[in-house]
UniProtKB/TrEMBL annotation:
Species of the source: Eudromia elegans
Record's protein name: Sulfate transporter
Gene giving rise to this polypeptide: Slc26a1
Membrane topology designation: Multi-pass membrane protein
NCBIfam families per the UniProt record, alphabetical: sulP
Compartments, record wording: Apical cell membrane
Lineage: Eukaryota, Metazoa, Chordata, Craniata, Vertebrata
Amino acid sequence: FFMERKTQVKINRKKIMLAKLRKSCSCTPGKMKNIIMDFFPVLQWLPKYQCKEYIWGDIMSGLVIGIILVPQAIAYSLLAGLKPIYSLYTSFFANIIYFLMGTSRHVSVGIFSLISLMVGQVVDRELLLAGFDLNDDAPSNLGAGFLLNDSQSNTTAFNLTIGGTSVECGKECYAIGIATALTFVAGVYQVLMGIFHLGFVSIYLSESMLDGFATGASLTILTAQVKYLIGIKIPRSQGHGMLVITWINIFQNISQANLCDVITSAICIVVLVTAKELGDRYKHKLKFPLPTELVVIVVATLVSHYGNLNELYASSVSGAIPTGFIPPKVPRFDLMLRVAVDALPLAIISFAFTVSLSEMCAKKYAYTIRANQEMFAVGFCNIIPSFFHSFATSAALAKTLVKTSTGCQTQVSGVISALVVLMVLLFLAPLFYSLQKCVLACIIIVSLRGALRKFRDVPARYHVNKVDTLVWIITMSASALVSTEIGLLVGIIFSMLCIIVRTQQPRTALLGQIQNTNFYEDDLEYKNLSSVPRVKIFRFEAPLYYANRNYFLKSLYRLTDLDPNLEAARRKKYEKKEQQRQKKGDQTAANGLGTEETTMQLVPKQIDFQAIIIDCSSISFLDTTGVNTLKEILKDYKELNISVLLACCNPSVVDSLKRGGYFGKDFGNMQELLFYSIHNAVKFARDLS
């Protein structure tokens, strides 16, 4: 039977684009209102806020996240190579801005260990290039510069010449200048991606690649914290192979370990891990997670303060954390140029984690998010705080899960968390002066449990999909052993190469008929299939395009045990040889003993089929090379009196074949070459025989 295609209405794209342009350029009060409402989603949902139903859940989750945020903010400052006050600023501003602009009700946006690590690597590199000592406790020294005391900022100031401009800036000042410039550029990238609707970039970051990247970065984070755990002073390694170099330095200086820090770290890790395990085991009985980090920090600070651990045992402490807000400052343009390349992977990773978590929450709680608006929200969570001495932010999985488990309903909980951080900023920050850095390192390392547990999932992942496991291993290894930026690049490239290889060498099969049915399946995969007499049914499970053309032909020739080009050449040689023999009249020699080898080489092959049916159900598209390949095999097999029939083609494949002239002029041969099912093609082939 022949199905008639619908007549497609031609779309005047020029008119449509002009209409869209006219609509986008128009400025009416209604349109301006919609733009503002879309840009600030809080204006849509806050007037509909159901106070009695939502408020207690939001307050509870906000308080819990705020209590978790404070110790994490102070701890993650070690990763970023910055003072704790800047982490607190980051946590405060990110929650406020995402409350105004975010479309997810449950995501917790703020400092994230992976983002802090990427910021810290850039800060360390630029500090090293500027001539600063990366040792946290060592005084800065620039041979040509002169030393000044700056009592207001509690830093050491130097005369630096950067980009031809003389500026007065110490190590802390220069470090936060790099971080804010990096954050501002990353935010600009994210906003530009939102303007040009480039959110699709995140689809190239597969789940296996992101998991591998996070695990590799977690190993780097863990390695960077070991020196704080045992209290040794080694330089912060930079460049490729940082993980290996750091471990070499650790073992070379292990004899200098501070016993006080080692004992403190051991106690804190035991307490934190035990509390986390108990919390995971009895989480269905607990109304909210145990604030273990806060308890550990409070107790450790009191012990350090009253035990004078810094003075008696030289244990490294956090130092003075000022209260209030530092006056805002525009990020420096000359530093932006230095970190413009580094900001791109930071922007992509930050957005990818935020959108993936937002989509996860939206799916779980049955609402929708707008990925493009998320891009704007994360972008402005970076741009605006960069003026207030903050660094890059992202959604964090652990805090998001805690937020949802403690009754969060809307982003009002984010405002509550910001108020908790504000209380610390205004009144409580100086109380953490005596807090040991090894305690902060313990909090960071224990927070990596989830990422490090991915190693236990490798056998199950391998059982599910071997290629995805290979992507995970390659990305994790590159991120840990080379660098996070290289690991991200390697992961993306390797993931895409895996997709290309899969389409270049897809599965191919000959099909047999399921007994007493009109259906056909892979003869090697299923039992009790019957072959169709005089017919070969070939399935190719990928698009047919220039990259897999040769594989398609080789697979077809191998499975059918017939190369039409070789067979046609053999027949021509045989006919030519026969004609020469007939002219000579040497029939005896043709039938003699000495011609056995010649006969075997030249006698035409006995072909046991007269039709090939190509199952096109898995061929999603054809390019020009693909169409020409099908035309080529149609012609080649026709010379051997073998028909080539196509079955189960989708409309786009049929259109490509029509445009390529596969069916001849006016599509006259279409009903003899194209069939809507394999069984129809088989019946037609039988009628031919």
